[in-house]
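Handoff note, outgoing to incoming analyst
You'll be picking up this chain. Sequence as last confirmed:
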Amino acid sequence: MSLLCPPTTLLQTDKHQFNLHALLKTTQTAVHDARTVLRVALRHVAVYPLLMALAAPALSQMTTWPTKAVRVIVPLAPSGGTDIVTRVFNAQLTSQLGQTFITDNRAGAGGTIGAELAARATPDGYTLIIVPASYAANAALYKLSYDPIKDIAPVSMLTTGPLILTVNPTVAAHSFTELIELARAKPGSITFGSSGSGSFSHLTAEMLRQMSKTDFLHIPYKGAGPALVDLLGGHIQMFFGSGPSTGGHIRAGRLRGLAVTTQKRLTTLPDLPTIGEYLPGYASEFWFGMWAPAGTPKPIILKLNQALQRILKQPDVIERLHTDGMQSVGSTPDAFARTITHDINMWTQVVKLGHITL
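Most recent structure output, in case you need it:
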């Protein structure tokens, strides 16, 4: 056979036959694929130094931050719950991260002054803030100069806990259902105190009023302490108080606990039902959480979150929080962001339906 035969010609051997056209096509494809692989490899080799150069600042922040003291703003007065929680975590963060975490109290306007200061701070990881659940309620009550969602970088939820629905022992209600029946039978006859108009305890009671279709008479005080004193003295009939402030009085018989506001029962007072057991969907979680200004580098947020998760698992921290009626929870930044958004929407509806203004 001629060597000049066309590619489609079959070459015969004793055992095999070959199609030259198919063989050439396969060879060309293999060469093309090899060239493609080579080009991709060379491109990655060229880009790799650029990628490393771009990532270097983030990697550096992750490994070196903090290199100086970190300010943690408390948007409420010293000696209050937020201040106490902040100092517990600041001491632990100082120990874990090797730089001093300083408590900076900036109280005023229900916590909005401190929150604005934190939101407007340079987003370099050296200004943080710990806020209570009332942070979300403030978004429904105040005309804020900052966006409570877009202007922050959530780090983690830290704790959660209930408020306890308590009544003076003279009130003719020994259970939650009896209280609701009494309120419906005599609208406006039961007075409840709060730590102030628009406070978390006020909105928690207002949500109960709306969902139970009852009518309570609101008496605002300048803080939870004076309201608790008048509850013990019988000057008001009902109050939503924290576990640390009311638990001892309940166990001593000076107050009567009827229910808790969280989705789960309180381990220290397991006989108290949740309000949600009677009013499905009712839940008012009193949490504390940490956030930073929007734009804070993600490696810093991640490093801080990881440190907080370790702290929240320490037995001494868990015991300390439990003593104060709080549960150590922790969360991812995204989960904490979802909690804030949910609570802002919830309290906005409560404020709107209750026609609450400050």
